Amino acid sequence: MRYPFVRPKFYLRLIKDITGFIVKPQYVTIRDISVRNKIYETLGLFLVKIVFSLLVANILAIFYEPKNITDAHMSERFTPLALLLVGGAILPLYEEVCFRLSLKFKPIYVGFTSAGLTYYIVTKAIYRTNLSLVDESFAARIIWSLLLGLLLYALTYRKKFAKSLSVYWKKNIRFIYYLSCILFAWLHIFNFELTRTNVLLLPIITLPQLFSASIAGYTRLSFGFRYPLFVHMGTNLLFISLTFLPLD
């Protein structure tokens, strides 16, 4: 596969693959493909994702453009270098652990994912603060998350239970994949003001995140965890870097 990025057939095949996967998700990791080709596939999906996200965002902006308060708060609180580190590396790693790591079942994955999701929900829904904000509630948020993560890890680590869950995961990967995509997309509502309009338009204004989650879930299940992580980091780093460009 030499220089696939200049071949339209490459992108048409990628779109066909991801569409087929969304219709019928598969649990099996693709092993008969080289690391180089996995990287090609991942980069190709990254480009498809960027084009689709920009297209949808610009179409939505014609009719309605909600303000992303999370991005605004992070820009105010962090220096450019810290923003690149937090928004381009730490948060993507955190979100991939929350929403993609446990698409493949392992007790330790369940522990990490449940801890991460607990931290997300407690932070956003209960304390109504920013994930990266270290304030008086930070210790409580961390403790609750670690306790639940350790508890679920201890429960799922039992041999018979782990074996049953592994079988369940494989048989129900379609439901688990769809759930992870919807959760990832719809929890991004907390990036915007919780107005009636934003809540009613939730499925529409989070379409870019839903598409991103679909691609990330595909790459995680097909190639492994590090591939959607690199795509997520690359996307965030790209868009954060664009905000540093002078507008005048």
From TrEMBL:
The keyword Transmembrane is annotated on this UniProt entry: yes
Organism superkingdom: Bacteria
Residues that span the membrane, as ranges: 43-63, 78-95, 107-126, 138-155, 175-192, 198-217, 229-247
Signal peptide extent: none
Keyword Hydrolase: no
Key words, A-Z: Membrane, Transmembrane, Transmembrane helix
Name this polypeptide is given: CPBP family intramembrane metalloprotease
